[in-house]
Amino acid sequence: MAVAAPTRPAETRVRKKPNLVFEEIMRFAYDTFCTNKVRFALTAFGMVVGTASLILVVTIGLTGKQYIMGQIQAIGANMIYAYYEGGSNSSISKVEQDELTINDMRAAREEVTGIRAASPMVELHDRIAVGGGKERDILVLGVSPQYADVRNLLVLSGRFFDEDDTNARNKVAVVTDKFAVKQFGSIEAAVGKQVKFSGLPFTIIGTFRERVETFGQSEISEDTLLIPYTVARFFSGNDYVKQIFFSMADSGDVDRATAQIKKVLQSRHRPESVYKVENLSQLLDVAGKTANALTAVLLLISAVTLIVSGVGIMNIMLATVSSRIREIGVRKAVGATKREIKFQFMAEAMFISIAGGLIGIIIGLALPFSLRFLTSFRVPISGLSAIIAIVVSTLVGVLFGTVPATRAAQLDPVESLRYE
Predict the structure, then answer these.
(1) Helix 383-409 / helix 338-374 crossing angle, nearest 10 deg
(2) Whether 61 contacts 295, CB under 8 Å
(3) How are beta strands 79-87 and 273-279 bridged, if at all?
(4) 224 near 175, Cβ under 8 Å?
(5) Going by DSSP bridges, is the β-strand pair 243-248/134-143 parallel, antiparallel, or unpaired?
(6) Is the separation of the CB atoms in 316 and 375 below 8 Å?
């Protein structure tokens, strides 16, 4: 007697391939989205705002960092400045001061490679008449012609004094734009005029300003006159200089040259004398870290928007599960597994979050791109922020879609079919 071959359960016989199940679930999720366009669109709006704000926050942070770095570099990214701080022994008297000299600058230029320009600086003070019997304090700096290059100054009218003026000890001066306006009415009117310093007339041959406003925090103030160092030396009566400025040909050599210049200066003076040799690299690092920290804080704020939108997705999906309990029962009755039910609702939640994320990315990138065409300022755009935005929006869909999907998968099929 032949024995009939055992038959497999119906569920096993009709099991579909995983890729067919995935396609069916995604198609069902899309149909559900199309059926409830308004409700899902309003839910996705939170993701649009969140992802767009995330990209814009990164763009704003990069723009602010670029602006700050540009401002600092405009002062002189390759600049190194040295000055005498004093003696390590507090009992050193004024007579024993070991100031820097013009020969220190020359020695540094000979021994340190890569220096493109250098200038000494002598500081003098005087009072000049401003009309009506009044006088005003002015600051006079004796510098070399290379000072304009080292300090990245912007000559507004006339010219800066040159080597011929320095060698001939011509009594010429270059004044700040604010001084020219206050004293002569305009920067153009100041050129050719004379101003007396210590009783000697100096002819103004140009006006200038700092390329970046330092608000009096640098050696240049509003009422500043620049004169050739060789002339200023006549008033000081010695070779001492208050500061020495250097400019490197390559910004990558700034840190190396700073250490070497300090070594050269220290070797030429007493061991107990203290000299400061500094550059703007540390300031650039601090500014960069500060900008990054502010961007991180703003990103955390924008993340709150994404969390709120995720809560909205979870709420709408919980309401969707409650309104489709009978449908879930029918699907389970015809063979749908808990895993398939869970994946279906997860797919719907992810569909909402990813759709909102993509729209938000388009908006977040479109605004900076439009500014590039409308203004001359080149707004930096980070492609990484778009990648992060789409990853975060996907994670939001997964995390906040898990609870509704799990609840739908755990519904009892019998009780679901009885649900009215």
Answers:
(1) 160
(2) yes
(3) antiparallel
(4) yes
(5) unpaired
(6) no
Tokens read off for 82: 């040295």
Neighbouring C-alpha atoms within 13 Å toward the C-beta of 174: 28
Please state, in angstroms and rounded to a whole number, the distance separating the CA atoms of residues 335 and 21. 12
Instruction: Count the Cβ atoms, other than its own, within 10 Å of residue 366.
Output: 12
The tens digit of pLDDT for each residue in 352-410 reads: 888 888 898 888 888 888 877 777 667 777 777 888 888 888 888 888 888 888 888 88
What phi and psi, each to the nearest 5 degrees, are found at residue 390?
-70, -35
For residue 399, give Cα distances in angstroms to 42, 208, 355: 19, 60, 16
Burial-class residue 237 by CB neighbours within 10 Å (0-12, 13-18, 19+): exposed
> What separation in angstroms does the CA of 187 have from each of 13, 55, 203, 401, 404?
93, 44, 14, 67, 72
Report CA torsion sign: 357, 360, 364, 366. Answer: positive
> With a threshold of 0.90, does the pTM exceed it?
no
Residue 196 three-state SS: strand
Residues 54-100: tens digit of each pLDDT: 888 888 888 877 777 777 766 666 889 999 987 655 444 444 578 99
Pair 137, 223: CB distance under 8 Å: yes
Instruction: Please state the rounded mean pLDDT for residues 292-297.
Output: 82
